[in-house]
Design brief:
Blueprint lengths: L2 H17 L12 H8 L4 H15 L19 H12 L9 H4 L1 H4 L2 H13 L16 H13 L1 H4 L19 H12 L8 H7 L4 H12 L21
Helix pairs in contact: 2-4, 2-7, 3-7, 4-7, 8-12, 10-12
Bound molecules: heme C (2 copies).
One heme C binds next to α8, α9, α10, α11 and α12.
């Protein structure tokens, strides 16, 4: 590599480290934009309009895809949606596919984020999420159930419902393959905005433990009132 290029790369790296953004592992950023967004009042019609951008990948129902490429976001706590969206926007969580669509140039400022995240949180969830392979009653399911009780309930709740106030995501009803990917990234330090206490809690998990516990989570029933009536349901706002 030539010396001038090397020098300029070093300068850039130093600046990134100093600004604390690009390479930081930060679970809770200072969050000016996040906190500002959460103080606003949502507008339903504007939410529908902004969501069109998101629907290209997360689908108009917000259900994502069973193969886990795109997560279900319908029914997620609004606080969690705002945190994740601003983390992605600010570079605390890597998501190269979505990054350009999350930027202010694409969707707008805090008001647009308030509108769209509120809208998403009210969407009915997928009654047919992607599940792991082990049905209730199998030893793998039972093992996962025990792991969940011992390691996850204190944050994600006894039914995986999460905690809106603390920014703990709802994980019930999420696609198995998406969750396995996130869990592995969190355990192995690849998801930079992960909660450090979760990282500690799961660091001894083998890949098998991971699959068993996520299998169990993927099979926790979602309350009926939060689910769409059938898997053929179409979001009526986009008729
Ligand atoms: C080009 C495709 C694409 C578009 C458009 C897109 N997303 Fe995403 N989104 C993704 C992918 C892929 C992931 C999962 C990335 C990963 O595995 O870490 C994701 C993840 C998320 C997450 C994190 C979910 C979680 O459970 O932590 C949120 C929240 C989210 N998207 C919201 C939005 C919103 C709001 C919009 C519209 C403004 C949007 N997305 C537009 C592809 C997209
Ligand atoms: C100390 C609290 C804590 C514990 C214990 C914990 N988690 Fe988490 N978990 C979190 C938080 C907070 C996040 C979101 C981190 C972020 O903001 O990016 C998360 C994220 C996740 C995600 C990704 C969700 C998404 O939508 O992207 C999965 C899956 C998950 N946890 C599963 C588990 C399982 C299974 C266990 C038990 C084996 C567990 N967690 C234990 C706090 C915890």
């Amino acid at each position: 590599m030539n010396k001038r290029l090397m020098a300029s790369m070093l300068t850039i790296t130093a600046a990134m480290l100093a600004s604390g953004s690009a390479f930081s592992n930060e679970w809770m950023s200072k969050g000016g934009e996040r906190d500002e967004t959460l103080k606003l009042k949502p507008n339903h019609e504007d939410g529908i309009e902004v969501f069109e951008v998101c629907a290209a990948c997360h689908l108009t129902e917000g259900w994502g895809t069973k193969d886990g490429t795109f997560p279900q976001i319908a029914g997620q706590h609004q606080t969690v949606l705002v945190k994740q969206l601003t983390d992605i926007r600010e570079g605390h969580r890597d998501n190269p596919t979505m990054y350009p669509f999350a930027k202010p140039e694409s969707i707008g400022g805090p008001q647009a984020m308030e509108d769209v995240t509120y809208y998403i949180s009210t969407l009915k969830m997928n009654p047919d999420n992607g599940k792991g392979e082990w049905a209730e009653g199998t030893p793998e399911y039972e093992h996962g159930k025990q792991l969940f009780k011992d390691n996850c309930v204190k944050c994600h709740g006894d039914k995986g419902q999460g905690n809106a106030k603390k920014f703990y995501p709802r994980i019930q009803g999420q696609h198995y393959k998406y969750m396995v990917r996130q869990f592995e990234w969190i355990r192995d330090g690849k998801r930079r905005n992960a909660n450090p206490d979760m990282v500690k809690q799961i660091k001894e998990f083998s890949n098998e433990d991971m699959k068993h516990v996520i299998n169990y989570v993927s099979r926790i029933p979602v309350p009926k009132e939060d689910l769409a009536p059938s898997k053929d349901y179409v979001n009526p706002d986009y008729d």
